[in-house]
Specification:
This protein is 88% helix and 0% strand. The chain is mainly alpha-helical and 42 residues long. It has one domain. It has 2 helices and no strands.
Length: 42
């Protein structure tokens, strides 16, 4: 399950990087996903 989630996150980051040159958006998305994972695990 974690592998699938990481794969989806990486694909989303790649797509967002290709769509726009702003990498901050993809970084925010990645941080949000990590935070949500920590909440679920806690």
């Amino acid at each position: 399950m974690k592998f699938l989630l990481l794969l989806i996150v990486r694909i989303d980051i790649l797509i967002s990087n290709k769509g726009s040159e702003k990498s901050s958006d993809s970084n925010d998305l990645y941080c949000n996903v990590l935070n949500s994972r920590k909440r679920k695990n806690a």
